[in-house]
Specification:
- By secondary structure, the chain is α/β, with parallel strands linked by helices.
- The chain has nine helices and 13 strands.
- It has three domains: 3-83, Arc Repressor Mutant, subunit A; 92-158 and 266-297, Periplasmic binding protein-like II (D-Maltodextrin-Binding Protein, domain 2, 3-Layer(aba) Sandwich), CATH 3.40.190.10; 165-259, D-Maltodextrin-Binding Protein, domain 2 (3-Layer(aba) Sandwich).
């Protein structure tokens, strides 16, 4: 096995924290992966991993070598891509992720225009209500809502969204308009049961009140929450982009605006940085322009 291939194997073991998982992803046998790492350790003259029956961790020397290997492999990949032209012309498969409703309503139309402009690219869209691991899942570009964790990813802010309490005009005509978050206990509340949903609604403003709600109606998907709110059945607390068109058309109204928390930023992120391929650069440029022009997130 060449030194270059052995470095690729070592990096994958470090990224997955396991020889077996690295072997599966590289389509190699576990013994072959073990031999490759052992050969590197012999050539370098240092232990790269601390192995136990349950864990595989980088040693101090392994951590330094891991950073160097990733840089070297990225430089080689960039050189090969440049020679092959993929840094000049968008080609290949672009994988994009966003939350379900945001992806459906805001990113999908951008993707179809992007494909029309770039006939040599195919797109795989992953719209899910969970935080994806962009590196492990092979994702090129993500649209993130909320504060970003410190990382080496490139991030371009395109707007912000608010968490709002809303209802249909017909609901407010029948049941009145709450003036303080504490009055929500007297109203019919609709919620979703997504993994991060909470029954403790925290608000902003000087007092920063927190209210424990008692929902009458719960849905597993947020689209159903919004539909029931539009029908005037009760109140919900979506992100403003989720009801952007309904707010513009007057089908829903927001309340308790003086108690809103700080807006959540929206970023377009990608892990390639300055080495971004043409397919990534072309999509990021288009997405940034379209999202910054969208009234629902600005």
């Amino acid at each position: 096995m060449s030194r270059f291939h052995a470095m690729q194997v070592f990096v994958k073991v470090a990224e997955t924290s396991g020889f077996a998982e690295a072997a599966r992803r590289l389509n190699m046998s576990p013994p072959a992966v073990t031999r490759a790492v052992a050969a590197l350790e012999d050539q370098i003259g240092a232990r790269l991993f601390t192995r136990t029956t349950r864990t595989v961790k980088l040693t101090e020397a392994g951590t330094r070598y891991f950073d160097d290997c990733r840089r070297i492999l990225a430089d080689v990949a960039e050189a090969e891509a440049a020679a092959g032209g993929s840094y000049a012309t968008p080609t290949g498969v672009l994988t994009v992720t966003a939350s379900a409703l945001f992806g459906q309503d805001y990113i999908a139309p951008i993707l179809t225009d992007y494909l029309d402009q770039n006939p040599e690219v195919n797109v795989r869209a992953l719209f899910v209500d969970r935080i994806t691991n962009m590196v492990d899942e092979g994702i090129d570009v993500g649209i993130r809502i909320g504060d970003l964790a410190d990382s080496s990813f490139s991030a371009i802010r395109v707007g912000a969204v608010r968490r709002v309490v809303c209802g249909a005009p017909a609901y407010f005509e029948q049941y009145g308009v709450p003036k303080h978050p504490s009055e929500l206990a007297q109203h019919k509340i609709i919620v979703s049961t997504t993994s991060w949903a909470s029954l403790d609604w925290r608000f902003g403003g000087p007092q920063k009140p927190s209210v424990r709600i008692q929902p009458r109606l719960s849905f597993s998907i947020y689209g159903a929450v919004i539909k029931a709110t539009l029908q005037g059945w009760g109140l919900s607390r979506p992100l403003s982009y989720q009801i952007g068109r309904a707010l513009i058309d007057g089908d829903l109204q927001t309340i308790l605006s003086e108690f809103e928390e700080e807006p959540l930023p929206v970023h377009v992120v990608h892990p390639e940085g300055r080495r971004a391929s043409a397919k990534v650069r072309a999509f990021v440029d288009l997405a940034v322009d379209r999202l910054r022009a969208n009234r629902s997130i600005n």
